[in-house]
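Consider the following assembly input.
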Amino acid sequence: MFQDIINPANFSEVVGQVAMASETDVEAVLERAQLAFKTWSRTTAEDRAARLRDAARDLRNALAGLTRLFVRENGKPFREAQIDIHRSIELMEIIATDLPDWSKPVVLDSHQPVYAHKRARGVTAVISPWNSPVLLSFKRFVPAIATGNTVVLKPATHCPLTILECARIINNHFPAGVFNIVIGRGEIVGEKLATDDRVRAIAFTGSTETGRRIMELGSRTIKKFFMELGGNDPALVLDDANLDHEAVAKMTHAILRAAGQVCIAIKRLYVHQTRCDELVGKLSQAFDRVVVGDGLASETTMGPLNNKPQFDFVTDLVDQCKKEGLTVLTKGRKLDPKTWDQGFFLLPSIVLGAGESHEIVRCEQFGPLIPILPFADEEEAVARANNTPYGLRASVWTADGDRAHRLADRLEAGAVFWNSHGIFRDLHIEFPGIKQSGFSRESRSAALNHYVDTYGFAQ
Ligand code: NAD
């Protein structure tokens, strides 16, 4: 069975076609990956590092073409897509550099030398989402193959072409069976990977609901899990916040990057009641400057949503807000009104009047709309920010760094930012989500630790 991959900015363009794998196909891929593991796991770290470096060089040479393909299948503006692919290649290079030293055994005790050795686990399944399918695949499969595992990657079916093209380039440098891709439905391919006892570890990025299902299935064969799940990030704008042009621009980017389809986007904006009108005014102006259109057009600052289920979900959410009597301020400009209905385009919106029980506050909206929620004091703000099963990121916007630091200690999130949100200046620094947002993510080459067993050898 084949599936068309349609450009979300232009329904008449079929960007590519992919074969949907059956359970029998997955069986064959697993067989191949297990066979390749026997020799791949015996290669040296230096050999694997050299192959990663060569693959990274070829990917760099292909960057422009890969970026265009990515925009056409995902919808992101060109610059955002390019950053994703660039970071993926950079990660490969960082890991190639760090791998040889990291691989050396560590001596634990000088009285009786005990050597802690690292050993690849076996076949690792990587399952990734559609919103950032390149970077979130690279972050998991690169450390896995670097450490001597073989990988079966299952990208999301909405957006698999760029990662497929990357794999074609990478596989010029790796033996057959080391890095495999299977495309297909989660219930078939994903569940087969989660249950098969040849799969020793699963690195999953996606929704909390799917992560839970994979952990249930994978627990039967005691797999190692790496889980990066959903989020509903709060941002707290305090009474003394500096809402200058730069701050509002950063906030807007943290809300609308990739049309809000980002796990670490600001999804709830709590503001001190004395600053609410000012924030609504300034954010409205910033949202009004957003140009929504095809990500390949140079004027576009926000692309379409990626797929129909997500488009329908966000559109229904906007309708529901209106039905519930909330105020929805729709902003921004259509790049090309004539072709607007030919893509999953939505203008950005600000939602006013919502309370904690409204769906727009409770759910992970994953779209270009943000509820603004006034609060009276810090206690109330912290309690409402933490009122979620998720715990990815949070931010505090204040002129007082000590105050931000104090509040950070009380906010239930894997990382808390002061006057920015979501991303560290070094784009490769990360911290894992907490609560039902998952666990395991680590920065740079520290992620390698997740993909190995450690055994001791004593003299
Ligand atoms: P999803 O959970 O629907 O799908 C993710 C992947 O799991 C896809 O490849 C899908 O085909 C597969 N899958 C679906 N059902 C499965 C099953 N029963 N068994 C095995 N695999 C199955 O998520 P999505 O809609 O692709 O992505 C959006 C979600 O991902 C959001 O919740 C977002 O917050 C989350 N996300 C989290 C992070 C993070 O780092 N924490 C990053 C990006 C996205």
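The mean pLDDT is 96. Ask yourself how this observation constrains the way the partners meet.
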